[in-house]
Amino acid sequence: MDHSYIDLDEETLFIVSQTFKALGDPTRIRILHLLAEKECSVGEIVEHLSLGQSTVSHQLRFLKNLRLVKSRRAGTSIYYSPEDEHVLKILEKTIQHATHD
User: Fold this and answer.
1) Please, which residues have CB within 8 angstroms of residue 63's CB and are 6 or more apart in sequence?
2) The whole model's pTM is what?
3) CA angle, corner 86, sides to 85 and 87, nearest 5?
4) Radius of gyration from C-alpha coordinates of the chain
5) How many CB atoms are located within 10 Å of the residue 59 CB?
6) How many whole angstroms from its chain centre is CA 73?
7) Is the CB of residue 53 less than 8 Å from the CB of residue 46?
8) 59 and 66 in contact (C-beta within 8 Å)?
9) CA 8, CA 80: separation in Å to the nearest integer?
């Protein structure tokens, strides 16, 4: 038996489950997939994905709280980009899995 197994603490379990919850929503998947390609403002996300501004803002807040996206201010605009490459890799691998025939 492998004795290197480490039991997961409550905080780790919570973060992992919240990350999968974030990836369990089609709108959040679309936003993360777009941001994996390029940094975008809320307006650009709204335009690219044909979503409402309040929807995009709400989902970005959710993703930012989980530290999956980060923001930077440039003048009056705020631009969003992925914060965690690990989660992007999981997302892209899952997309490849879904589109593989």
Assistant:
1) 22, 28, 31, 32, 69
2) 0.85
3) 90
4) 16
5) 20
6) 19
7) yes
8) no
9) 31
